[in-house]
Amino acid sequence: MTRFRVQEAASHRIDEIYRYTRDRWGNEQADRYVTGLFDTFDKIATHEVLSRPIPAEFSVDGYFFRYEKHFIYWKTLGNGDIGIVTVLHEHMHQIDRFQKDFGNEWKQGERERRD
Question: By CB distance 3.0 to 4.6 Å, which of 9, 13, 78, 83 could disulfide with 101?
Fold first, then answer.
């Protein structure tokens, strides 16, 4: 069974999303939104949703899926699990943040495959 694993950059982004949502709209809404993100991670891992490939100009093998106001970027890990690399808001400068988050996780994944 395919599982998902939240990578370090994604974990930080999810924490930021939770705090921002909690501060603006309260705990209940923050809980609901983050729970929805994790439900979406499950759907990605079980292929219940259709993700799009990351454009070739990024030179990484990965995919993205939109959940409400955020884009979830993910890749298949060496063991077949889904690695949730980062989660970015639609208004964030996607290219800069994506390259930073995905680049760090990509390098870590390459090291894992070589070991």
Answer: 9
Record the tokens describing residue 80, joined without a space.
């077949």
CB–CB of 9/83 below 8 Å? no
Mean per-residue pLDDT, 76-84: 94
CATH at 104: 3.30.2310.20
Residue 18 is predicted with a pLDDT of 98
Nearest to 106 by CA among 80, 86, 79: 86
CB atoms within 10 A of CB 54: 19
Structural domain containing residue 60: 4-114
pTM above 0.85, yes or no: no
